[in-house]
Amino acid sequence: MHDQFPEQLERFALAIAIGLLMGLERERKPSARAGLRTFALTAAFGCLMALLTERLASPWPLAAGLAACAALMIAAYHMQPPPDDPGTTSVIALLLCFALGATAWFGYQQLAVSLAIISTVLLYFKTELSGIAARLSARDLISILQFAVLSLVVLPVLPDRGLGPYQALNPHQIWVMVVLVSGISLAGYAALRLARDTYGPLWVGLLGGLVSSTATTLVYARQAGLPGGSPPAAVASSSRIILIANLVMITRVGALAIVLAPPLWQRVLAAIVPGMAAGALATWWLGRRNVQTFSAALPELRNPTEIPTALGFGAIYALVLLAAAWLYDVIGTSGLYTLAVVSGMTDVDAISLSVLRMFGLGSLTAETAVSAIMLAVAANLTFKFVLAAVVGKMPLAKAIWPGFAAVAAGMLAGSRFLELN
User: What is the model's pTM?
Assistant: First the structure.
C-alpha cells in the first residue's frame, strides 16, 4: 500500500488541478454558486469516492457522492436564486467535475484532462457560442442534421467488405470518404455562413477553397467578368481569392493523402510543397503589386451535406473506384493516369481518394499513386484556369496566370525531384 502512495497522490493532484481549471472559469461569474475552491474540492471528492468504490467493490459510494453534489448545488440555487440565471450550467459543470475526478482515479488521466479542457472552453466562450447559435438559420441547422444522418445513421449500417468487380466497392469505406469530404466542406461552409458580410481575399479564399475551389473560382471569375468591366481592384481581389482557393485545394488533397495513406507523406509533401510555396509567393506578389483594396463579398455556395450532394459524390467516387481498378487491370498505369486526368478536371477528390484506396489495398505502388494524384491536381488546376479565363475574360486571365504557372512549375520541380530520388 505504501508503494502505491505516490501514484495515488498523483491521481488526487490531477483531480484537484482539473477542479481548479474549471473553477477558475466559474469564479469569473458573479452569479455562480461554486467557484475555484468548490470545484477543486468537488473533483477531489469525486476521486475519493472512486477510491472507496474500488476498495469496497460497490458502486454506491460513487453514486451517493454524485447525488450529494447535485442536491447541494440545487439547494444553494433554491435558497438564493440569482436573477436571470437558473444555474443549470454551473450544476452540470460541478457534476462533470466530480465525474472527472473519479475518472482520474480509475486511470483515465489523459481523457479526464482532455474533457476538462474542452469543458472549460465551452464554459468560457458562452457569449460567442450563443452568438453563433443566434446566427444559425433553419438551413444551417438542417445542414448539421444532414451531416449527423450521413455519419451516425447511414455509416454504421453499411457492410464493410468488398463487392462487385475486383472487389473494388466497399460500401462502408465509400461512405467513410463521403463523410470525410463532406465534413471538411461543411466546416468551410459553416464558417462562410457565420461570417459577416465582407472579408478580405485571404479569408474568402481559404473558406471557399474548403467548401469548393471550383465553385469559388466560378463565382469570382463571374465577378471579375461583369459586363462593362470590373474595376482593377475587383479583378485583383478576385484573382487572389481564386489563387488562394486553389492552394487550399492542393493542401486539402495533400492532407487527405497523408492522413489516409501515411506511408506516402514524404512523397506527397515533396511533390506538393514546392508548388504550394511558389503559388503562395506569387499570390503575395500579386497582392503587393495591386495596392488597391476591394472588399470581397462572401460567396453563396451549395450546402455540401445535402443528401443529394452526398449521394452524388458517393456515386462518382464508386464509379471512379471501379473504373480505376478496371483500367489499371486492363491497360496498366497509362489507363489509370488517363482516368486521373479526365476525372481530375472536374473532381479531384474522387480520383485522389480512389488512388489512395488502391494504394491502401496494395494494388498500386507509392510512385504510381503519387503520380496519379499529381496528374489529377494538374488537370484540375488547368481546368480552373481555363474556366476563370473564359468567364472572367482577359483582365482576370492576365492576373491569375503567374500564380497558376508558379504552382505548375513548383509541382513539376517536386515531381522531378521524386523521380531523381
Answer: 0.68
